[in-house]
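re: ur question from yesterday

yeah so i grabbed the chain u mentioned. its 344 aa long if i counted rite. heres the sequnce exactly as i have it in my notes:
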Amino acid sequence: MKTALQGIGGLLLSVVLLYWVFHDKDPQALSAALMRASWPALVLAAFLNLSHNAFRVLRWGWLLEPVRPGVPFRPMFSAVILGFMTTLLVPGRVGELVRPALLSAREDLPLGPCLGTVVADRLLDGVAIVALFVVGSLNAHFVAGSAGLAGEIRVTAAVALAVIVSGLVVLVAISTVGRRLDGWLSRRWAPLRWLGRLTLGLSRGVDALRSPRRLVPIIAYSLAVWLMIALATWIGIRAAGADIGFADTLVMLPLLALGVAIPTPGGVGGYHAAMQFGLTRLFGVDPTIAAGAGVLIHLAILVPVLLLGPVLLYTEKVSFADLVAAGKQVRALGHAQPSIEAAR
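ran it thru and got these structure tokens back, copy pasting raw so excuse formatting
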């Protein structure tokens, strides 16, 4: 029932956002804009957007190194793509949980630290997005009258960066004193013990950030992930007919990430609304072209994952039941990890 309600709510929100994007567009003008798009450039954008996951996997390998060095690339890549596919198809962003649980089950990794690396992964994404936004905003070509809005976005980005960095610092601090906390928790009230050990397990996902040797490539891969996403988005926007610079696309990253984060099925509606808002309000792009860009680039993001995902289900011998079991494993995390020493 809860999943059904989430699905219905997300679908209604998607309809509302799509109506906001398309209700004032001339269907013939929109169709003409879509037909004028450069399809070879869109194919390149789709390829680049899928390829960014290679850098995401390499970063994940460094985050997992304190848990187990040398986790193979293939199972991590499969878990990433299948996690994204699940997020697109199942309400509630279940894929974020399926990804670490699937890797944990297939590679016999402790679930808590594995899930913690994905939490760190998302926080590092936020740091990279804000950092690239700052760089882009120094060279972006804002349309006249958008300075106030750009300033508000800068302030919001600064606040978001402070929150994200604080979260990473807290997790690193917990990881540092984990052994002592585990002994203290063993004598606490059962619900507190469960929550504490869950937090300790997650904190192990940031152990790699305590090592400069690991921190440097982790940061480098984080920037590479979002530079490639930005490049794919820029190529797609220009293919749709909008003449904006690469720095302008870096400014768009926080808006597009927010659009994807809106709980709609597959990001439908949220991504389109964010694309149109950013292109029209910040850079003066024609609304019809902006709406077309949202449609085309969203397809360039979704289609490769939806094509590759079923192939990986077959080649990796993973069933939908395996994905459901992975989600249940995450739900039982606190009970499955009696102590931090067992996870180590």
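noticed a couple things. The radius of gyration is 21 Å. also The mean pLDDT is 84.
anyway ttyl
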